[in-house]
Amino acid sequence: MPDPFDSILYKYVYCTLSSTDDVVCVGSGLFGGGLLPGGLEWLAYVLTAVTIVAVLINAILGGVLMMIWGERRLLGRFQGRTGPNRWGPFGLLTPVADAVKTMFKEDVMPTVSDRLVFTAAPILMLFPALLIYAVLPFGAGTWLADINVALLFIIAIGGANVLAIVAAALGSGNRYAMFSAMRAVAMLISYEIPLVISLIGVLMLSGSLSLVAIVNAQTLPFFIVQPLGFFVFLVASMAELNRTPFDVAEAESEIVAGYMTDYSSMKFGLFFLSEFAATIATSGVIAAVFLGGWHGFDP
User: Fold this and answer.
1) Full domain range(s) for residue 89
2) In whole angstroms, how far apart are CA 268 and each of 125, 164, 211, 215, 216?
3) Residue 71: is it exposed, middle or buried by C-beta count within 10 angstroms (0-12/13-18/19+)?
4) What is the Cα–Cα distance from 274 to 283, expressed in whole angstroms?
5) Is residue 70 domain-shared with residue 119, that is, in the same domain?
6) 31, 164, 258, 281: least CB-packed within 10 angstroms?
7) Which residues lie closer than 8 Å to 178 by C-beta, 6 or more apart?
8) pLDDT of residue 78
9) Which of 62, 77, 104 is at the close of a domain?
10) Same-domain status, 116 and 218
11) How much of the chain is in helix, strand and coil states, percent to nearest 5?
């Protein structure tokens, strides 16, 4: 199992909080803050994890807001409109205003719904998207966990969003939501197999399921060596994310809003957050697996 202190991010936060004579930090050149009194160095592990997770979640939220603004702005240009332009310069604060509005909207619960399942579905949708970041390398020595089966973990956790869609449909008791759930399950069978097959070439070239090992194995980015695998993975990823033209689970022109038809307030916001957080995570996986990670074209 890789040492967590191989991560510069983890080691920096730990050494800042722990005592200056900590064995891990001596000779590392990192700042030993000694913010914790003697005998409580074990708390540094807990505080390190909490600090990193807090920074990561806030970074994800900021990235999601920027993606929402960019997508709405781009769609506005496609349709001959200006797009969001009321709040802040170039409308940059519009997603923030929308988030505040969503939080204060009335939380409507359908009378025929299963209250527990209906409430749990948005949370089930968010967790898989966040768990991918735990094994995603952000740069050289900057990752939360380098596990030997990271790629397998991502594939397994990526398909869990279908369970959340089915739970949302069953919990709401809406016929359109059930149509959406059946479409999502059918599409899962369609894209999961090519998604896995597209990674076989990468595994043969790198000899590992660890994302860090895959990045380090790329003397040339694997999208050059495996162009067909890269294209198949890209298309299958769009299907997994329910993005156009694979948004059959929430096709608004056919089945209203799909599994989200009866959701409002923060429950609807969690579905929206999950979709864009998963998009950012998938982009990071593609960058690590096919585009050379932090090496790029200069390994």
Assistant:
1) 1-104
2) 11, 13, 32, 36, 40
3) middle
4) 14
5) no
6) 31
7) 169, 170
8) 79
9) 104
10) yes
11) 65, 0, 35
Nearest to 240 by CA among 206, 296, 198, 200: 198
**Contact (CB, 8 A) for 280 and 291:** no
Does a structural domain hold residue 294? Answer: no
Helices and strands (H, E) in the chain, number of each type = 13, 0
Assess whether 113 and 47 both reside in one domain: no
94-103 helix and 42-78 helix, angle to the nearest 10 degrees? 110
Same domain, 171 and 98: no
User: Sign of the C-alpha dihedral, residues 59, 65, 70, 75?
Assistant: positive
Give the dihedral sign, CA 109/114/115/117: negative
Axis-axis angle for helices 265-289, 161-172 (nearest 10): 160
Quick one: pLDDT band at residue 3, thresholds 50, 70, 90?
low
Q: Are residues 9 and 132 in the same domain?
A: no
* Contacts with 258 (C-beta within 8 Å, 6 or more apart), sequence order: 176, 177, 179, 180, 183, 249, 250, 251, 252
Residue 203 CA neighbour count, 13 Å, CB half = 11
pTM of the entire structure?
0.81
**Using one digit for the tens of pLDDT, what is the confidence trace for 164-174?**
888 888 888 77
37: DSSP letter: P
Asked if residue 132 belongs to a domain, the reply is yes
Residue 296 lies in a domain: no
Among 70, 104, 138, where does a domain finish?
A: 104
Same domain, 172 and 269: yes
